[in-house]
Design goal:
The complex is a heterodimer of chains A (about 300) and B (about 700). Chain A has about 300 residues and is α+β, with helices and mostly antiparallel strands. Helix content of chain A is about 40%, strand content about 20%. Chain A has helices at about 10-25, 45, 95-105, 170-175, 200-215, 220-240, 245-260, 270-290; strands at about 30, 55-65, 80-90, 115-120, 125, 130-140, 140-155, 155, 165-170. In chain A, strands 1, 2, 3, 4, 5, 6, 7, 8 and 9 form a nine-stranded mixed sheet that branches. In chain A, helix 6 packs antiparallel against helix 7, helix 6 (about 220-240) packs parallel to helix 8 (about 270-290) and helix 7 (about 245-260) packs antiparallel against helix 8 (about 270-290). Chain B is about 50% helix and about 15% strand. Chain B has a five-stranded antiparallel sheet. Chain B has a four-stranded antiparallel sheet with strand order 13-15-16-14, sandwiched between helices. In chain B, strands 4-6-5 form a three-stranded antiparallel sheet, covered by helices on one side. In chain B, a hairpin with a 5-residue loop joins strand 15 and strand 16. In chain B, helix 5 packs across helix 6 and helix 20 runs parallel beside helix 25 (about 655-660). The longest helix of chain B is centred in the middle third of the chain and has 26 residues, at about 305-330. The chains are: A alpha+beta (about 300), B alpha+beta (about 700). Chains A and B meet through strand 4, strand 6 and strand 7 of A and helix 8 of B.
Amino acid sequence: MQGNGSTPLSFQQLILTLHDYWAAQGCVILQPFDMRVGAGTFHPATTLRSLGPDPWNCAYVQPSRRPTDGRYGENPNRLQHYYQYQVVMKPSPPDLQALYLGSLAAIGIDPLLHDIRFVEDDWESPTLGAWGLGWEVWCDGMEVTQFTYFQQMGGFDCKPVTGELTYGLERLAMYIQGKDSVYDLMFNDAVGDRPAVTYGDVFLENERQLSKWNFEIADTEKLFRWFKDAEAECQASITAGVPLAAYEQAIEASHIFNLLQARGVISVQERASYMGRVRDLAKGSCEAWMAHNGWAE
Amino acid sequence: MSADFLLELRCEEIPARMQARASEDLARLFTDRLAEAGLKAARLTSYVTPRRLALIAHDLPAATQAVSEEYKGPRTSAPAQALEGFLRKTGLTQDQLEDRDGIWFAVVEKPGRATADVLAEAVPAIVRAFPWPKSMRWGKASLSTESLRWVRPLQGIIALLGDEVVPISIEGIAAGRTTLGHRFHSNGDVSIERAATYAERLKAAHVIVDQAERRRIIEERANALATEAGLELIPDAGLVAENAGLTEWPVPLLGRFDPAFLDVPPEVIQLTLRINQKYFVLRDPAGALANAFICTANIEATDGGKAIVEGNGKVLAARLSDARFFWEQDKKTPLARHAEKLARITFHEKLGTVADKVDRVARLARWLAEEGIVKDADPALTEQAARLAKADLVTEMVGEFPELQGLMGGYYARAEGLPDVVADAIRDHYKPAGQGDDVPTAPVTIAVSLADKLDTLVGFFQIGEKPTGSKDPFALRRASLGILGLIIENDIRVSMRNLIAAAAHAGEGDAGKSLADFLIERLKVQQREAGIRHDMIDAVVAVEGSGDNVRMVNRVHALQNFVATEDGANLLAGYKRAANILKKERPENGKAASAAGEEDPGAALTDPVVADAIRTHDALVAAYAPEPAEAALIAALDEAEPRAATAIAAEDFEGAMAALATLRGPIDAFFDSVTVNDPDPAKRDSRLNLLTRIRAAVHQVADFSKIEG
């Protein structure tokens, strides 16, 4: 598959092309949120900005951490750290599907050569108290994007509705570059005698070490303590009227919970209770954010 | 003059699984709305694609009929208030009323309404109240939660009556005559002149609006591709429909995968292809799974589909690699080691972990084998199979494909060299999964399956989680049908009471009576399929207290056959006559006898009331000379009673029925020629006692009072 030039897009060129495309649609191009999160949706630019009446159009890359998906760098498709490209548009524009298909064309996917399909996939995040309807977008049978119209966030109705696009960047790049392993992806292009670098050059060792830490090393006693600390700090921040700070602690608690799961120290019964605690933090932060802005119902 | 009406509701992709129902709902709601206005189309044509719901109502009249309605009012002599009320009700003035013989009549002319006006009202109402299983808000209008809801954003409406647009506007979407064609094969608006050209205009724009036509194309093309490749398509109507719901221009394409993946169990490959990728599966002439797949694209690709097949092949290879990885990985650990992890999974908070359940099931299964309740099941192998039966729940493969539970355990058991009977039992112990599913017949499998279901059923009943109404979250009805199927089809002779007692969990509540009743209700459901009437089951349950389902079912079958014969029907009539007289004359005895009957089978003979009746009868009968028919009945009873009892003891229910059948003639003759209510109290008492004896004799076989009709 080809980009606009004669060689397929490198990983970074893919990101830059999407940035250009969505910037031209009026999106604010943000940088990744500087905390460990499980998905681009956790970025306050999605979660908190999807609340309230104000228009908001934004795109960013978000490094996403899924400790349980780590495979010590041995699986060509699974990573404990990967990238999502996130676009949110509020209110959802009437031509959001067309805009999205335009972005695929921009990165070189010809819809008369490749089979693009919108397949039902509703989205729900129990920890964020959020849900929406939409699709997973298939390209030749591969899921490349999650497309969602948020209906609720933090337990509140979205007024108006935000349209959210989440591209799996590594998958998309593997597809465009025709690679079978994420580690073989061209991260950039060679320029003169400065060589190209692969995704593996950049991240393989991280996957090995972080998988080991996530599954074997992380001190569970500390993790439990950190969870409690983040929980307490979140609640204190809600009380103190700083919901943005509270939300950061909710994110922290959510990630610590994911680490505890990877360490296999949370039983099935406890799992539901921990998820409930994280949800309470996220919902509490959203509620405080609504109140702070005078949007409370 | 009549005209066709075309309605198209175009939106973003409708989930495939919702399309058929939505199409039916649209037709139904449309028909109902029009009927309310007095309109009816000659016929309706419904279309649905991922991006549109459409309907053509053929031959609608141009307007509804004008109607003249007449109302009868008060007498002209009635007080003024009555007249005023009538005028208010009809909206007329007094000079518009007619005086017919002193009574006011009002004639109200209702002019016909233009069909376009009716449609302009009906369509928005249908759209606003459309019963989507899940619907959403979108766009600027969603600033209010009251904004229009649809399955996905609604984008356009065509409403054409004849060749005129019906002026409809729903939340800012105005109806017109234009739509969009295929997402990638068509540019710009497609204009529709009238309903008759809708399908062809869209076909020219690469949209096949008729879902049946898309299904046909997929089926024919997929079969042709299979044949060309020397293979056979494994038919799958659900998958055809799903792919027809995912495409507006379906193009099946055949691809191949690395034959090395065929080492993975075929069920795994099939599920990967079907569930994850919606691909058709093929087999070779020998019937084995082929290393091929058919995907259904939505475009006529410029390269003939080469890139699409290649892309899909890659996705499939990645999926199959995962599956093979799980398969290899799971096999590295023996099932017994996997089973240890079951201690981490909660079965139910009040019933412990899955490991706890496995332990109970293993002991119960072993007991079933040791006691010979399940014949020819080796106790040690039975226990082993039970202890390993749930181990695959913690394997990677079952984590990925929960529907492969049991089946994978069977594969893993065989792979580690466990005996076939153990592997088979692990594989099949969830069976029968529902009515119509195969019932296991291998002894070890029967024991494990029965023990597993009994433990579930008894456990949930003990903690008070019985199914109520439509709620049966733990699928206890299905478990019960499974138990009954296993017992009856395998001729397992055991009392349900003993089984329930053996399965009872320590320290929990008592499940006995309510569970026994629940199982009887399930037995009725299960036997209904076999054409057995529920009242026949009630009639037998009332007298058969053994709790032995095999015995009960045999008896029920004999009873239903007997009642269908002329002898049976007449005996039933005679019995009812006797019972009715007794109910009237000796109400207290009837109650006592039947109450006793429910508690204890065959109790009628030892019941003190009955015994007393017989004794009194013997004493009284000597006091007068019985009439011939009376004497004949006594003689017939003397002979039939022991015959029936002996037959029942030998489980010869046909024999018992035959013995009863001999009573039919004497009973008929008795009622024909003997008066029960004789003025002589001694005769009356004696004859009532005789009726009691008839009832008791019949109750040896079944409580005929439960039989309807």
